[in-house]
Amino acid sequence: MGQRIVFVRHGDDPPDDRVTTWAHSAGYEVDLRKPFAGDGLGDVDHSVAGTVIFGGPYNVFETKTHPFLNEEDRWIGDCLKADIPMLGICQGAQQIARHLGAWVGPRQDGLHEFGYYPIEPSHEAQGFLDGPLRVTQAHFHTFDLPNGAVRLAGNEAFPNQAFRYGERVYGFQFHAEVTIEGFRRWQDLMAHYYSEPGAQSREEQNQLMPDHDEAQADWFYGFLDKLFGKAS
């Protein structure tokens, strides 16, 4: 088993998210790559224990405008062939879905989720999510379920919030990795979202975050334990 988890990031956020915290506590080397800034992703060799493809501001279908997305798509394909654990978060989930042939894009009505929204487990979600959970969201794009994938969670507005492909590949539309501190940065950086349909107000977000952040964190750390395990 490899000793490094490759993080594919699409911005310069501080490394205070829950995936980073968990990876260090589990004994892994965090191999941080930023293809948008010119980093290559290399090969999937024996040292790679898994990969996490994070969220970001890029439309996953704009590969001519953002050619680095082609390198990330190649990486997703290589990781699938190597059968290593892979988690895509928001944009990352959309990239995995698109690689598997699914449609990705915005709802026609422009609906957004920005704040803390409930998701419900599907009938196939046993062992993944036992009941409703309110999770962090910041998106307006969505995706169809790829052929062969299992839908694990959703809500009325965005039915495809989590899926599994095979046994070791997951895509989340939501941001369970984001801490309260991280989301407070987003409240400033994404302030333009507040005027969009479906977005919660800052006041509503501030009321919801302390009530639901701990449960989200507990669930997510447990999920990462199951997906990646501890470093050997």
What does this structure look like?
- There is one protein chain.
- The protein has helices at residues 18-25, 68-82, 91-99, 180-189, 202-228, and strands at 4-8, 29-33, 48-53, 86-89, 104-106, 113-121, 133-139, 141-143, 149-154, 162-165, 169-172.
- With 232 residues, the chain is of the alpha/beta class.
- A 9-stranded mixed β-sheet has the order 2-1-3-4-11-10-9-6-7, with helices on both faces.
- The longest helix has 27 residues, at 202-228.
- The mean pLDDT is 97.
Strand content: 15-25%
- Adjacency order of strands in the biggest sheet: 2-1-3-4-11-10-9-6-7
Looking at the structure, what is the overall shape?
globular
| Coarse structural class | alpha/beta
- Tally the beta strands: 11
The biggest sheet amounts to: 9 strands, mixed
End-to-end Cα distance, whole Å, is 7 Å
Order of helices and strands: EHEEHEHEEEEEEEHH
